[in-house]
Design a protein that fits this description.
single chain; alpha/beta; Rossmann fold; 5-stranded parallel sheet; two-stranded antiparallel ribbon; signal; hydrolase activity, acting on ester bonds
């Protein structure tokens, strides 16, 4: 059933039927934490994106149709340039070409559990993917939350336990973990405010975990929620969303990348001793 939900999220791009489940049948993760100093004074930085479809750049309205990774013969729209390409261009402009390499490991339909255990649609556990990189990752970024909430039905406690294990996996690979806050979604069953299962609660808990561990959370959720264009009557700017109300459109992806880059650039500068 999880595969069905993931396919619905990516190919139908509406996450229909993925809001329930309450996490039943979800394996119990092992609770671990790890923190350590970021490497400094490097001459080059490699960033690995371990993200979901909203990191991959899924956009049902985009005329740019591509083969999605991990989804068989799934063909769907993708924003062009992709979020990873936007980030790469910004780093090239800020620090010079070749100083930072952005590797896009985003898997549409993925969750923290899928990433860590290598379950479909992921192709291998995160630890294996990081170990197989030709150039070891210095920074690994996750934006996982939307599918964790709506596909797996996780509450704050379960989500944070998986996130602790994700942080441990990244630090064990010698990289710095970074959390990229997701965008909100505007489905009719959107759940922003519930203190145990709502989007804001899960994201706030992840922000707190990363801050307490000495790592960076890239702001974005509140930016979406607070950015309104009068006389927009919505609680946040749905003009940034594609018609599925889950994935951003071109303008929304550009807005997200701008939010992320502003907070990520100082982390990379420090790592490079600049």
């Amino acid at each position: 059933m999880l595969k069905k939900y993931a396919l619905a999220a990516v190919l139908a791009i509406n996450l229909a039927g993925c809001g329930g489940g309450g996490g039943s049948g979800t394996p119990t993760p092992t609770s671990t934490t790890a923190a350590g100093p970021a490497p400094a004074h490097k001459t080059h930085a490699t960033i690995y994106l371990d993200e979901d479809s909203t990191g991959y750049g899924a956009d049902i309205d985009s005329p740019n149709k591509v083969q999605y990774p991990g989804i068989g013969n799934g063909i769907a729209g993708r924003v062009d340039p992709s979020p990873a390409q936007m980030m790469q261009a910004d780093f090239d402009a800020a620090l010079g070409a070749g100083v930072v390499t952005v590797i896009d490991g985003s898997i549409p339909g993925g969750t923290l559990m899928h990433s860590l255990q290598g379950l479909a649609p992921d192709t291998a556990p995160l630890a294996t993917r990081l170990a197989q990189l030709t150039t070891p990752a210095d920074i690994v970024i996750t934006n996982s939350e939307i599918n964790d909430q709506y596909v797996l039905g996780e509450n704050v406690s379960t989500y944070i336990t998986w996130m602790q294990q994700w942080i441990s996996t990244v630090t064990a690979a010698g990289a710095v973990p970074v959390y990229a806050e997701p965008n909100p979604i505007c489905r009719s069953d959107m759940n922003l405010a519930d203190p145990q299962t709502g989007t804001n609660a899960l994201v706030a808990a992840a922000d707190q975990l990363f801050g307490a561990s000495g790592y960076t959370a890239l702001p974005n959720l509140a930016n979406f929620e607070n950015y309104t264009t009068p006389p927009n009557p919505q609680p946040w700017n749905i003009a940034f969303m594609s018609s599925d109300c889950v994935h951003p459109n071109d303008a929304g992806y550009a807005f997200k990348e701008k939010n992320y880059f502003a907070a990520l650039l100082p982390v990379v500068r420090k790592m490079l001793g600049r």
